[in-house]
Specification:
single chain; 159 residues; alpha/beta; Immunoglobulin-like; five-stranded mixed beta sheet; three-stranded mixed beta sheet; 5 helices; 8 strands; disordered C terminus; binds zinc ion
Length: 159
């Protein structure tokens, strides 16, 4: 998966991490993300997302992950991962449409993924979802680069 490949790069550039680049998202035993939208400052060169499972059920019964793709790819990536099994975090191995993803966790656990915003194309809608079978239709939200600081938007995503 792409996020593994970028891990080394992200460690090097970790000094660039700033406020507004670290996001938290919570998932529950009721098969919900508590956040419908995640906004990241457009000046961030890398983003760190931490998923918290605030429920009590184990990963085998109500496991959740956090997967970022283009909005248009959500359903196809979720369907492709459905048969990959918990061992693969319900993510099709090598699926290049996955921008970033965490592992599947159970209640009381948390997990973090870091990725570079250079992977995000300008003018494209991105969404996050849970790839556990049957979850993505409910467990999804918009991932938005906050355009408030527009000069940085052009600088960061015009590659
Ligand atoms: Zn889920």
């Amino acid at each position: 998966m792409k996020w593994i490949c970028t891990a080394a790069f992200l460690l090097i550039s970790r000094v660039a991490m700033a406020d507004g680049c670290q996001l938290n998202v919570s998932a529950t035993d009721l098969m919900r993300f508590e956040q419908q939208t995640l906004q990241v400052d457009a000046q961030c060169t890398e983003v760190e997302v931490t998923l918290h499972h605030t429920g009590k059920l184990p990963a085998s019964a109500m496991g959740h992950d956090w997967v970022l793709t283009k909005t248009a790819d959500v359903a196809s990536v979720a369907n492709a991962g459905m048969n990959a099994g918990l061992v693969n975090n319900y993510q099709k191995p090598g699926d290049s449409r996955i921008v970033a993803a965490t592992k599947v966790i159970g209640g009381g656990e948390s997990t973090t993924v870091r990725f570079s915003t250079a992977q995000l194309d300008a003018g494209v809608s991105y969404s996050y979802f849970c790839s556990a079978p049957g979850h993505f239709s409910i467990m999804k939200g918009r991932f938005v680069l906050n355009a408030a600081s527009s000069p940085a938007v052009a600088k960061n995503v015009a590659k």
